[in-house]
Design brief:
By secondary structure, this protein is mostly beta strands. The chain has strands at 2-7, 10-13, 18-26, 28-39, 46-52, 55-58, 66-71, 76-81, 90-100, 105-109, 113-118. The strands form two sheets. Strands 2, 4, 5, 6, 9, 10 and 11 form a seven-stranded mixed beta sheet that branches. A four-stranded antiparallel beta sheet has the order 1-3-8-7, with no helix packed on it.
């Protein structure tokens, strides 16, 4: 079994910064990809940023403001969010595609961390 645990959400004023962390633990053989999604009130969940062997992806709305990074030794992914806007408000979910020690690839989700940006 694999668990993803997020941290780092909170309340920040527009223009401020936050750093989200997501640590994966459990029966991990390798992590194929990690990323962050967000869901604003009344909207669908959307991909914000991801990182895999194929490269890094950013949604247009966050390009130039958010940076995704990984610490492979710690099985952790980070999302540095700068110049935050009220539209960035939402629950941020960590997502990972992980190959277990039994060589099965599965997708996992964290429980989410709330980011609130005040104007």
């Amino acid at each position: 079994q694999v668990q993803l645990v997020e941290s780092g959400g909170g309340l920040v004023q527009a223009g401020g910064s936050l750093r989200l962390s997501c640590a994966a633990s459990g029966s991990i053989f390798q992590i194929n990809a990690m990323g962050w999604y967000r869901q604003a009130p009344g909207k669908q969940r959307e991909l914000v940023a991801s990182d895999s062997s194929g490269g890094t992806y950013y949604a247009d709305a966050v390009k130039g403001r958010f940076t995704i990074s990984r610490d492979n030794a710690k099985n952790t992914v980070y999302l540095q969010m700068n110049s935050l806007k009220p539209d960035d408000t939402g629950v941020y979910y960590c997502n990972a595609n992980i190959r277990s020690i039994y060589y099965y690839d599965e997708e996992y989700w964290g429980k989410g961390t709330l980011v609130t940006v005040s104007s």
